[in-house]
Design goal:
With about 900 residues, the chain is mainly beta. It contains six helices and 58 strands.
């Protein structure tokens, strides 16, 4: 019997995008940090994560990566949602004491209230000590319970973290591995990246430093579902079509690696199935496929609900199915019939995920994905023809296909590299079957790229119906490029000296992509360091300015190949030298010539004059070696001290930026000037007055005569008593030579004295000379009578018995005069000198112990002073008369005398003392 032909239209939906059926996020109750131990003391921390873009290998059994893949920077774009991203922290104790301490690891949990999770778990049960990288004395660490901070830190709305506690020995370096799970839906986390952190117990960086790694979120891929649905009524045969790629995606990995991959295989299986129809009913066939893009196996359990319009007809529950990493697996296949006339057939599939590694539930489901089918009448559909078309997109990508086991190509030679399309036809098929297309995808030239290998199969039934199946295989490649930092410095290091330069590399988002250091030892001046495992792009390299070295500008490089470089040529901040002038009195510090001698200075040294502040900053950039700073002396000044770096040796790098300063203290010399008057007026013509400047003169000593100046009526006053600015500040004496009987105001000045017992005829007054000052004395003289008396010593040294030494003032005074001493008339120089010497006339031995001769000496000087015009004093006159009367009483004749009574002796001694004071002008 021939049945009416029915036309059947089939609809299938292969939806690659993820739709999350996740309920509103409910944050766990925020748990405060509970300190298990004290904060770390002197511990150095490093936080690293795995970057698979750089050729690293992921070990799913341990959830770790190859050591070369760990970085302190960006974790790359190769991760997927629900990956357990390997992290590690390194703690080094250095010289710190043995200690037990705690700190925190964690990361961004929520980006806003009830929105999307980032990291949703930290495991495993505790940090795992990496014994291959740790010292033998390192011990196990523990994790505290999973905790949450609301508000979050580090920019997150809410933070997830665990407290780490460990005990560490002095001098050890310990490495611990752990992981953090990327939440389902993490690609929806706002911002450019998720951050994983290492903090102190207060969830900040104090005492630890900013330790974080970043993982881009925009290219995170979730697990996905795809499905198809067919509905056929009154068909003898029902055809379905499926396409499965293995693997689900292709990654060439690091194109900069040695022996980088240039080709990758992929097999796409096209399967067609012929199923007998059920007369009078509608046969509904549904398939649900799950694709796992994570780097570990996941267990997916699919559920498919079939509807008529919006009315559920039935639910199909799939079994838990393991989906290997980077594989697409059939999760659910169902065939059943529904009543004729059932309209608007559609279905909606979701899948729950089980994390068998952590045992931590994955909230929500993936899906739904939907398909529809509208059955119409058809025929027998005994046969079908399947066609396939393949093509590829992406820079540098091509593919080739091996000869298939079924059917043939149209206008394509098997094994030929092409970008497509490559067309294939099965020919007429009357039974279920499949064909595998073995393809080889090539990348040339090696470059960072992304593309898609698209494969669309179409089944054409003999009665005219069609159904399609597609497979889009994502293709990627990455590059672990190397940035070389070239560094040169002057060749200045010697012996055990070293110098380290630190660099920070940041990407175009200003995120830290890496750090590096270069250390120079003695004799080294050009070195480089590689910063590996970077992605192509633009990088800015900053040098941390080392003490004493000049700052360097940031260097930027755009790396499009596998390597790039920047150059830093450092110059140091050289040492410098300066001289500082301090003057007494102040205010004269400018204009002094300073001289710097040593390596690099001109012949004779660099000469520079001091500025208004007294500073001479030398222009010479100091080299290594010995230097001396001196000053050019100025007349009238004395250098009282030279302190600081007046002779020094420069040694780099220890002396980078050092300013060596020598401070010179100079004191200006002073001066003594005189204004001389005669009886208050000008000096008469023919008169000469002699003045001296002395040092260390006292009543017992003449001191040192520094200058002698005669002033006359032609002298202009004030007159310098010594060369201008020739006296070092201090104590001096101004002395005037006085003739007997002359008066001088010098004898009325405070502190006046007659030097060395008054033998010279000079009268002195103390004078203090101050720096840069002229001390001026005004002295007035009056002629005899009424002048000063002179001492016994003066009259002896200015007599006939001192020929050629001093003027014979005694003879001149005595000439034409005479006076009685006892009964002796003294009218000759020799008589006077004998008595002044307390020696009997004609004898050679003095009689200083004899009160009579002792009085006679003072009496002779007294009488000579009066003859010369000295002013008499009543006390002196009375003493002279009394003593002379005693001399007469004892028959004193200049040679002998009669006995002296005790009373006479006492009187003579007293009278002699009075006359001594008179003769010394101290009465």
């Amino acid at each position: 019997m021939h049945r009416p032909r029915q036309v059947v239209r089939r609809f299938a939906s292969l939806i690659a995008a993820l739709t999350l059926a996740v309920p509103m996020v409910v944050s766990p109750v925020a748990a405060p940090t509970v300190a298990a131990a004290s904060d770390p003391n002197g511990i150095s921390f490093t936080l690293e994560g795995c970057n698979l873009d750089h050729g690293g290998t992921y070990n799913a059994s341990t959830n770790t990566c190859s050591d070369s893949a760990y970085t302190t920077g960006n974790l790359g774009k190769s991760w997927a949602e629900l990956d357990l991203v390997p992290l590690r922290f390194t703690v080094a104790s250095g010289n710190s004491p043995n200690q037990t301490y705690s700190f925190v690891v964690g990361g961004d949990y929520l980006n806003g209230a009830a929105t999307h999770n980032g990291w949703d778990y930290i495991g495993p049960g505790g940090p795992v000590l990496d014994t291959s990288l740790s010292d033998a004395a390192c011990t196990a660490a523990t994790f505290g319970p999973l905790a949450y901070a609301l508000p979050g830190v580090g920019g997150a709305y809410e933070t997830i973290y665990r407290l780490v506690t460990l005990t560490q020995q002095t001098g050890t370096t310990c490495v611990y591995n752990y992981y953090q799970r990327l939440a389902l839906g993490a690609h929806l986390f706002s911002g450019s990246s998720l951050q994983a952190h290492l903090w102190n117990q207060s969830l900040n960086s104090s005492g630890i430093g900013e330790k974080r790694v970043q993982l881009p979120v925009s290219q995170l891929l979730p697990p996905t579902l795809t499905k198809d649905m067919t509905a056929s009524q009154n068909e003898d045969n029902i055809w379905t079509l499926a396409k499965t790629p293995v693997p689900a995606s292709l990654d060439f990995g690091d194109v900069c690696a040695v022996n980088a991959l240039t080709s990758l295989p992929v097999t796409v299986t096209v399967q067609w199935t012929k199923t007998a129809g059920t007369p009078g009913r509608i046969t509904v066939i549904t398939h649900v496929y799950g694709t796992n893009v994570a780097h570990r196996d996941l267990t997916l359990t699919a559920t498919d609900v079939v509807y008529s319009g919006t009315t559920p007809l039935y639910t199909v529950d799939g079994s838990p199915t393991n989906v290997p990493a980077n594989q697409t697996v059939l999760l659910l296949s169902d065939t059943r019939t529904v009543d004729p006339g059932t309209a608007n057939l559609n279905d909606s599939a979701t899948a729950a995920i089980t994390d068998t590694v952590t045992g931590i539930p994955v909230p929500g489901t993936i899906g739904p994905v939907t398909a529809t089918a509208s059955p119409t009448t058809s025929g027998t559909n005994d046969t079908a023809t399947i066609t396939d078309s393949e093509s590829i997109t992406g820079s540098g990508l091509a593919f080739s296909v091996a000869t298939p086991s079924v059917g043939s190509f149209t206008d394509y030679t098997a094994g030929t590299s092409t970008t497509g399309p490559v067309d294939w036809s099965s020919g007429t098929r009357s039974a279920s079957g499949s064909v595998g297309f073995s393809k080889t995808v090539t990348l040339s030239p090696l470059q960072v790229t992304s593309g898609t290998l698209s494969d669309t199969a179409t089944l054409n039934g003999s009665d005219g119906f069609t159904v399609d199946a597609t497979a889009d295989i994502g293709i990627t490649s990455t590059a672990a490029v190397t940035l070389t930092i070239n560094k040169t410095i002057p060749n200045i290091l010697q012996g055990a000296e070293t110098q380290t330069f630190d660099f920070v590399v940041k990407d175009s988002t200003d995120a830290t992509a890496g750090t590096a250091s270069i250390t120079f030892a003695a004799g080294e001046y050009s070195k480089h360091v590689d910063v590996p495992n970077l992605s192509p792009g633009t990088y800015t390299v900053s040098e941390t300015t080392a003490t004493g070295w000049n700052p360097q500008d940031d260097q930027q490089v755009t790396i499009t190949g596998c390597s790039g470089s920047v150059n830093f040529e450092n110059t140091f901040a050289p040492a410098s030298a300066s001289a500082v002038k301090v003057t007494v009195p102040a205010g004269q510090q400018a204009g002094w010539t300073m001289v710097l001698t040593g390596p690099g200075t001109p012949l004779g040294g660099e000469q520079l004059t001091t500025d208004a502040t007294g500073t001479a900053a030398f222009a010479t950039a100091l080299q290594e070696g010995s230097y001396t700073i001196t000053e050019v002396a100025q007349t009238g000044w004395d250098q009282t001290s030279a302190t600081g770096d007046c002779s020094f040796t420069v040694d780099y790098p220890a002396d980078f930026g050092t300013t060596f300063t020598c401070t010179f203290n100079n004191t200006e010399r002073g001066n003594i000037a005189l204004i001389k008057t005669f009886q208050g007026g000008a000096i008469p013509a023919g008169d000469t007055f002699t003045f001296q400047v002395r040092q260390n003169a006292t009543s017992a000593s003449d001191g040192t005569v520094l200058s002698t100046v005669d002033v006359t009526s032609g002298t202009t006053f004030p007159v310098n008593l010594i060369a201008p600015n020739s006296l070092v500040p201090g104590a001096y004496q101004v002395c005037e030579l006085l003739q007997p009987g002359w008066g001088s105001t010098i004898t009325t000045m405070t502190g006046h004295f007659e030097p060395n017992g008054g033998v010279s005829g000079y009268f002195c007054v103390p004078v203090t000379v101050t720096a840069g000052q002229t001390t001026t004395l005004t002295i007035d003289n009056t002629p005899p009578p009424g002048g000063v008396a002179l001492t016994i010593g003066y009259w002896k040294t200015h007599s006939c018995q001192a020929p050629g030494k001093q003027a014979d003032v005694l003879t001149a005074t005595l000439t034409g005069h005479g006076f009685l001493v006892g009964s002796l008339l003294v009218d000759t120089c020799n008589e006077a000198v004998s008595l002044l010497s307390k020696t009997p006339i004609g004898a050679t031995k003095n009689a200083a112990s004899d009160p009579a001769f002792n009085f006679a000496a003072q009496y002779v000087a007294y009488k000579l002073n009066l003859l010369a015009g000295a002013a008499d004093k009543t006390t002196a006159a009375n003493a002279a008369a009394n003593g002379q009367s005693i001399l007469v009483a004892i028959s004193f004749n200049g040679v002998t005398h009669t006995g002296i009574s005790p009373a006479q002796k006492s009187a003579l001694l007293a009278d002699a003392s009075i006359l001594d004071k008179y003769n010394n002008n101290s009465l």
